[in-house]
Specification:
The complex is a heterodimer of chains A (about 325) and B (about 250). With about 325 residues, chain A is of the alpha/beta class. Helix content of chain A is about 30%, strand content about 30%. In chain A, helix 5 links the parallel strand 13 and strand 14. Chain B has a nine-stranded mixed beta sheet, with helices on both faces. Chain B has a two-stranded antiparallel sheet with strand order 2-5. In chain B, strands 3-4 form a two-stranded antiparallel sheet. The longest helix of chain B has 18 residues. Classes of the chains: A alpha/beta (about 325), B alpha/beta (about 250). The structure holds flavin-adenine dinucleotide (FAD) and adenosine monophosphate (AMP).
Chain lengths: ~325, ~250
């Protein structure tokens, strides 16, 4: 009985999702008196870093130089790895890769599946984990009754924590089967932390009046090292690129800090952001619904407030 | 070309979420249900467009009780050709997936469409489970799908970008924003949908490995703390020293 964590990579790089999943897996293994190992597929460039997150062993499944994520191919290899080391709990990050894999693995392992969990198993004899439903409007406790379990852990559940030691890296004897699709191209936005991984997000809505006014938003984001986001009508009008759209129909995020500027706070918008740790709202309308979901607020004209906020952050950074 | 679109029913976004029975059950009293937006706006419409371009048939598939007929009719009025309803309360993802997979084994499909996730449970589970049950490729979170000859090209959303992939039928796909534009049915298509066939079939049973044992609503925020715009340095200090988020 052990925990196996999938350390996902994109183009050879393991990132926050993988580190969080390992940290979560380690904490769960400690709690249940198990050991935790990790599995990777393909060449990992930052293996040393990955090895510092508490896995006893890291099983590396060889895939040649070029391998891109394929849920069918990956699920088979990972399930074989679980069987070969006797892992009964499989953990992945609740990311595009983790979600696509989890259902498949649950079938292969005959396992109970819970996606998007946001906490460790609760105390007691039963295996119970919590997740949120209705885009954050409710919480539910799931009991997994089967011996084998497949979980994906949602971002910001645990902060990535290094363990001090270093994992043993083992080359796995599992062979990768043939791919089920061909990945032709991978395009990512360079130099920016992707929204689902961002710790600080500066987001703006229709209150901006037009795309030509986004300079102040970009400046504030640059000062804070934040990623920019927007409301849906803003993306629909092509004021901002579609990948910035957050909310129920866009990206769901859980940053530490979400700054909402000129956004009314419609329920569908809140659905994608209300799990943020701290929410700051800037709106000229004191009745804007967003204030009800906010921790801090400034009632005022954003064109005056945002530059002042930017100055205050700059001064803080300088001191 | 046989195209299957799996649709689910969810409370509309503005619905009040409450639980009864000491947090044991969802309180559906007064809740309005809609077709899951990802299924309606993207999966269904793209399937219909592919049929319009290439010929074939769009089957709408739903696991749910008779109270779902209204969303099935809507899917037919948007342009589905026929529908199958598995007459059962969808008890979990695995149960739903099993019904879909069994149907596809008996009625082979070229492309099986899912929504990215349901907006109530936000699970994104069913598509992945069905793909494995049928041992077919799964294009997850697709924002584009084109067909040329026998080959399909799709774009799938990944963290901070997109990936372009090439895949052959049969495969499953989960649909995200961008895949298609929402279609609003008109009076004529609503009338026509009444004549389209809806098959009602009984479910295959599955064992239950996962069960929700307790629901609750999250604690309310303690209330917003307001600042004057000339006092931004105090706010910044709080964010740094008390909240520790910057
Ligand atoms: C099924 C469905 C799904 C949806 N999904 C999403 C989604 O995923 N994401 C999303 O964002 N929306 C979504 N929407 C749309 C949502 O309902 C709202 O229409 C949208 O979020 C409003 O965007 P907004 O706040 O930018 O614009 P508005 O509602 O127009 O609000 C603009 C705000 O800016 C303020 N303002 C104006 N000028 C200034 C100024 N000078 N200074 C300060 N404040 C100012 C105003 O007081 C107002 O509160 C969805 C809707 C539906 C029906
Ligand atoms: N009861 C159901 N009947 C048919 N399809 C469903 C049902 N529930 C979920 N689905 C499909 O599976 C997708 C993902 O659902 P979920 O895994 O619950 O997030 C949905 O967008 C639908 O396409």
């Amino acid at each position: 009985m052990s925990v196996l964590v999938f350390a996902e990579n994109l183009k050879g790089e393991c990132k926050k999702g993988a580190f969080e999943a390992l940290t979560y897996g380690k904490m769960m293994a400690d709690k249940l008196g198990m050991t935790m190992s990790a599995v990777t597929i393909g060449v990992i460039n930052n293996l040393d870093e990955l090895a510092s997150y508490g896995a006893e062993k890291i099983y590396q499944i060889n895939a040649g130089d070029e391998v891109a994520f394929d849920s069918k191919q990956f699920a088979k290899a990972i399930a074989d790895q679980c069987t070969s080391i006797g892992a009964t709990i499989f953990v992945a990050a609740h990311t595009s890769q983790g979600k696509a894999l989890a259902g498949r693995l649950s079938v292969r392992m005959d396992a109970g599946l819970v996606t998007g969990v946001n906490g460790l198993p609760q105390d007691g004899d039963a295996f119970v984990v919590r997740r949120s439903l209705f885009s954050g409007k409710a919480l539910a406790d799931y009991e997994v009754k089967s011996n084998n379990k497949v979980l994906t852990v949602i971002g910001n559940t645990v902060p990535p924590a290094k363990s001090g030691g270093s994992s043993e890296v083992v080359s796995s004897d599992i062979a990768l089967s043939e791919a089920s699709m061909t990945v032709l191209e991978t395009r990512t936005v360079d130099g920016e932390v992707p929204l689902p991984e961002a710790e600080v997000v500066v987001s703006a809505g229709r209150g901006m009046k037009g795309p030509e006014n986004w300079g102040i938003i970009e400046e504030l984001a640059a000062t804070m090292g934040a990623t920019t986001a927007c409301s849906r009508p803003v993306a629909d009008a092509d004021w901002r690129p579609h990948h910035e759209h957050v909310g129920q129909t866009g990206v769901a995020i859980r940053p530490n800090l979400y700054i909402a500027i000129g956004i009314s706070g419609a329920i569908q918008h809140l659905a994608g952001v209300n799990n943020s740790k701290v929410i700051v709202v800037i709106n000229k309308d004191p009745e804007a619904p967003f204030f009800k979901a906010a921790d801090y607020g400034i009632v005022g004209d954003l064109f005056e407030v945002v530059p002042k906020l930017n100055e205050a952050f700059k001064e803080m950074m300088a001191s | 070309m046989n195209l299957l679109v799996c649709i689910s029913k969810t409370p509309e976004t503005t619905a009040k979420i409450n639980f009864t029975d000491g947090g044991k059950a969802f309180d559906s009293d007064g809740v309005n249900y809609i077709m899951n937006p990802y299924d309606e706006w993207y999966a269904l419409v793209r399937a219909i467009e592919l049929k319009e371009e290439n010929g074939g048939e769009v089957t709408v598939f739903h696991v749910g009780e008779a109270s779902s007929d209204i969303i099935i009719r809507k899917a037919l009025s948007i342009g589905g050709d026929k529908a199958v309803r598995v007459n059962a309360n969808p008890k979990d993802s695995f149960f739903v997936a099993k019904q879909i997979a069994e149907f596809c084994k008996a009625n082979p499909q070229d492309v099986i469409f899912f929504g990215k996730e349901t907006i109530d449970y936000n699970g994104a589970e069913v598509g992945s489970i069905v793909s494995e049950m049928l041992d077919i490729p799964f294009v997850s979170f697709a924002s584009k799908l084109e067909k040329s000859g026998d080959v399909f090209t799709a774009e799938r959303d990944i963290e901070g970008g997109v990936q372009r992939v090439q895949v052959n039928a049969p495969f499953a796909i989960s649909s995200a924003k961008g895949l298609a534009e929402q279609r609003i049915p008109n009076m004529k298509s609503i009338m026509m949908s009444k004549r389209k066939p809806v098959d009602v079939v009984e479910p295959v049973d599955t064992d239950t490995k996962v069960e929700i044992v307790h629901y609750e609503t999250p604690p309310e925020k303690s209330g917003v703390k307001l600042f004057e715009m000339d006092d931004m340095s105090t706010l910044v200090k709080i964010l740094r020293d008390e909240e520790k988020v910057i």
